[in-house]
Amino acid sequence: MTLQNIISMTFYLTFVVYVIFGTYSLTVSIKSRLNRVFACLCFCFALWGFTFAAINSSLTSEEALLWRRMSVLGWGVVYSIMLHFSIVLMESSWSQKQKKTLLTSLLYLPAVINVIVFFIYSMPENGHVQMIYSPAGWITTTDVIWYDRMFLGYYLSFSLASMIVIVQWYRQTDSAINRKKALAILSSFLVALVLGTLTDIITVSYSNVQLPSLAPLIIMIPVVTIYCIIRKYGLMLSPQNINESQPEGIILSTLSRTRLLKYVSIVMIVGSILNFYDRIRAGENSITGLLLSFTLVLMGAVVVGIPYLFKSIKVQETVLGLFLGILMPVVMLAYFNTDFINIIWPVPIFFMMITVIFNNKNIFLVLGALSLLMEVILWILMPDLWLMVDQKFYFYRLLFYIIGIGMTAIITQIYVLRLQENSKQDAFQKMISQLSSDFVTMNRTNFDEKINQLLKKSGNFTRTDRVYIGRFSQDGKKLFFTHEWLKEGITPLIGDTENNVATTLAWSIGQLLNNDIVYIPSANQLPVTADEERQWLKKQKVRSQILVPIQSNHSIIGLIGFDEMHGSKALRVIDQDWLRVLANLLADAIAKVETEHDMNYLAYYDPLTGIPNRVLFYRRLEQAIDLARETGKNLGVIFIDLDGFKEVNDTLGHDWGDQLLSRIGKRLTDCLGEADLVGRFGGDEFLIMVPQISHHLELEKMAGQVMSIFHRPMLVAEQELYISGSGGIAVYPKDGENVNSLIKNADLAMYAAKKSGKGRISYCSGVMKEAVQEKMTLTNSLHRALEEQELFLHYQPQVSAITHEISGFEALLRWQHPERGVISPEVFIPLAEQSGLISSIGEWVLKTACAQNKIWQDQGYKPVRMGVNLSVEQFRSSNLERIIRNCLDATGLEPQYLELEITEGIAMKTSQYVVRQLEALKKLGVTISIDDFGTAFSSLRRLKDLPVDRLKIDKQFIWGIGENPRDEAVISVMIHLARELGLEVTAEGVETAAQLAFLKVEACDEIQGFYFSKPVSAAAIKEDIYQNQFSRIKNNSRCVEALAGGVLS
Question: Is the entire prediction scored with pTM above 0.85?
Answer without folding.
Answer: no
